[in-house]
Amino acid sequence: MITTLLLSILIAVTAGCSKKLPEPLPDSPTTGHAHLPDGKGGIHKTGNPYKVGGRWYKPVSDETAYDETGIASWYGRDFHGKHTANGETYDMHALSAAHKTLPLPTLVRVTNLDNGRSVIVRVNDRGPFVKERLIDLSYAAAQQLGYADRGTAHVRVQTLDMPAPNKKEILASTATFRPARRHDANHTSASGRPSGVATVSSLPGKMFIQLGAFSSKANAIRLQNKLQAYFPNTRATRISLAGKTLYRVRMGPFEDRTNMEQTILSLQNKGFQKPMVVMQ
């Protein structure tokens, strides 16, 4: 009787404690590696101007040369499996983000100004609308940038037509950090969407991924040969710019956005962390 009673108490205490312990955030259930969302079910869109918390936001239909600094947060389990603003399914283990005004989807490079880490994410949602935050990253992206356990970080957000910041720029950005400028924009977080969705066609012209531009032909050829083992469409070409001869290394052209996104992710996984998208 006593033994049974003690056992019952032990089970009750154990069960009570287990309810209080937070469930750890798991790694990706499929590969264990972060990946860009596959985009299934999503559309290219902007949206009408919308109002959240007394502030108006105006989404843009096309964004190039975007380069802002601000506060990044992240969102995870509460929205996992729900629809994003452009109709995709939010996956906390994928490299995605929410932004108030950028076209959906848009690839951006996010650099943590506190530690120099960078990650390329697919913006497919609207937000964040908390205080003066610039971007809301997925749990996986926040993990790669090293701030998932802290909640927020000082970041630099750039479209891929902008060159990635070097160490000196990161230090300078950190020293002179200011919240990002506000665009008048439109929001739809994973928990709700604005009305009046407008579809945006794909970007005009051909897309290339540029990995570098060198004054030395030998350096360009070396990088070309290294990349061609994985990406046969890589070429080193000679150009004249401001009276100087340069040798740029590019792959492409890509007429399919999904193929380009997957190539960028593959480049990252192979250690090429600063691809730049060029439109022609």
User: What's the gyration radius in Å?
Assistant: 22 Å
Mean pLDDT across the residues is 76
Q: Which strand order do you get reading across the main beta sheet?
A: 3-7-4-6-5-8
Order of helical and strand elements = HEEEEEEEHEHEHEEHE
Structural class: alpha+beta
CATH superfamily of the largest domain: RlpA-like domain
3D architecture notes:
- This protein has 280 residues and is an alpha+beta fold.
- It folds into 2 domains: 50-175, RlpA-like domain (Barwin-like endoglucanases, Beta Barrel), CATH 2.40.40.10; 207-279, 2-Layer Sandwich (Alpha-Beta Plaits).
- It contains 5 helices and 12 strands.
- The strands form 3 sheets. The chain has a 6-stranded mixed barrel. A 4-stranded antiparallel sheet has the order 10-11-9-12. The chain has a two-stranded antiparallel sheet with strand order 1-2.
- The model is unreliable at 1-32 and 173-204 (pLDDT under 50).
Keywords for this structure?
disordered N terminus; alpha+beta; 21% helix; 6-stranded mixed barrel; single chain; 5 helices; 280 residues; Barwin-like endoglucanases; Alpha-Beta Plaits
Tell me briefly what this model is.
With 280 residues, this protein is of the alpha+beta class. Helices cover 21% and strands 28% of the residues.
Question: What is the topology?
Answer:
Layout: H1 2-20, E1 50-52, E2 55-57, E3 67-75, E4 96-98, E5 106-112, E6 118-125, E7 133-138, H2 139-145, E8 153-159, H3 167-175, E9 207-214, H4 217-228, E10 234-241, E11 244-254, H5 257-269, E12 276-279
Parallel strand pairs: 3-7, 4-6
Antiparallel strand pairs: 1-2, 3-8, 4-7, 5-6, 5-8, 9-11, 9-12, 10-11
